[in-house]
Write a structure and sequence with these properties.
Elements (H helix, E strand, L loop, with lengths): L3 H12 L1 H24 L3 H26 L2 H21 L16 H8 L1
Helix pairs in contact: 1-2, 2-3
Amino acid sequence: MRTQKQLFEESINKWSIDSQILMLAEESSELSVASLHLLRKKKVLKAMDDFVEEVADVELMIKELKWHFQIQNRVSLARERKEKRLNNYLDDREDRTFPLLLGEDVYPKKINKKRRQ
């Protein structure tokens, strides 16, 4: 079994860094689609399985690219800033709830009418 470093080195050497960046974009798109499928509430177990697989794919690609570009610390700092911002946002707007949690439509009314036809 290869170490993580060996795995990342070999994949970049075999397919190139450009290819791996494109793969992250592709996997991110697939995660986006899988996320939207969770909202359909049809075939929930399959949708969740697909979502889990796509999250794993994206996490792996991100991990590989963070390793390649040596940006682990920068990403950690950025994540901390964003978590602080989220915490502040929640403190400032305790009366607001994300629309999906209320069961509200996330699409503007005009679009909803077209979708239902």
